[in-house]
Amino acid sequence: MRFLILSDIHANLTALDASLAEAKGKWDKAVCLGDVVGYGPDPNEVIDRIRELDAVTIRGNHDKVGCGLTSADDFNPVARAAVMWTREQLRPENREYLEKLPTGPVSVDGFSMVHGAIPDEDEYVVAPAQALDSLLEAPSPLTFFGHTHLQGGFSLGADNKVQMLRFRPPDGEKFMTLGLEKGTSYLLNPGSIGQPRDGDPRAAFAIADADRGEVEFWRVSYEVESVQERMEKAGLPEPLILRLSFGR
Ligand code: ZN
Question: In the chain, at which residue ranges do the beta strands (DSSP E only) sit?
Fold first, then answer.
C-alpha cells in the first residue's frame, strides 16, 4: 500500500493540483495532516479537492480557527487577517467539514499522523529536544507530522539519540528516498504544499510505501504567480503574497 502524504495545503489549489499531477499513479490512498485552509486564496476549492480524494484528514490550527471552533487571538495580525477572510468565504458544507475533522494523532495502516506533536496538536516541532516526546509516545514507529512547513524530520535509534533529518531534493531533482531502518522510530514531515518555509518555493509532499519501508520526499514547481494574482484580488496581506516566491 502506497500513501500520498499531504500537509499544510493552505488554500493553494495551484500547488495542490501540480502535486497531484506529479504523484498520479504512484499512490493508493491519500492522507492530509491538517491546515487545509488559511493564508491562500482557494479555501473552498481545496476542501472540495480533498473531499474528492477521500483523503484521511486531521485538523490543523488554521482549520480550527477558519471554521470558528477556536478564536484567532493567538494568530499574528497577518495570519489573522487571512483566516478571517477564509471564514467569510467558506460554504456552509465546507465549514461543517472542517468542524468535524478529527484531532490527531490518528493511526492509519502502519503509521500515525498528527498536525503538530503527539502530546499537543498545536506544538511546533523544529528541534531534536522537541521531537523526543513524540518519538517516545507515538503509537507506531512511523509518524508523519506537519505544522512547521519544513520538509524532513527526526529519528530515534537504538543509541537513544534523536537525529535531525533536514533534507529536501536538490534543485533539478524532484524527489529523494529515505529507507526506514527496523528498530528506529521516525517523525517525518512531508513539507508544505501551499506555503513552504524551508527556502525552496516548490510544493512539498511525500509518498510512503509501508511494505517496502521507504518514504519519498518530493518537490514540484507550480505557477506561483497565478496564486499571487488571486491573493491580490482577494485583498490578502502582502507579506503572504510575497513569501510564496521565496519559500520562506
Ligand atoms: Zn500550516
Answer: 2-6, 29-32, 56-57, 106-108, 111-114, 142-145, 152-156, 162-165, 175-179, 185-189, 203-209, 214-220
| Residue 64: inside a domain | yes
Q: How far is the CA of 140 from the centre of ligand 1 (A)?
A: 23
pLDDT of 46: 98
**Residue 107 falls inside a structural domain:** yes
Ligand 1 centroid to residue 215 C-alpha, Å: 21
Global pTM reads 0.96
**Mean pLDDT across the stretch 3-20?**
98
Does 248 map to a domain? no
CA of 183 to the centre of ligand 1 (A): 30
Query: Distance, CA 74 to ligand 1 centroid (Å)?
Result: 14
Mean pLDDT rounded to a whole number for the chain: 96
Between the CA of 158 and the centroid of ligand 1 the distance, in Å, is 32
Domain extent, residue 162, equals 2-243
Q: How far is the CA of 25 from the centre of ligand 1 (A)?
A: 27
Residue 2 grid coordinates: 502506497
User: What CATH number does the domain containing 15 carry?
Assistant: 3.60.21.10
Task: For residue 115, report the distance from its CA to the centre of ligand 1, in Å.
Answer: 9
The count of domains in the chain is 1
Q: Within a domain: residue 26?
A: yes
Give the tens place of pLDDT for each residue, 107-156.
998 899 999 999 999 999 999 999 999 999 999 999 999 999 999 999 99
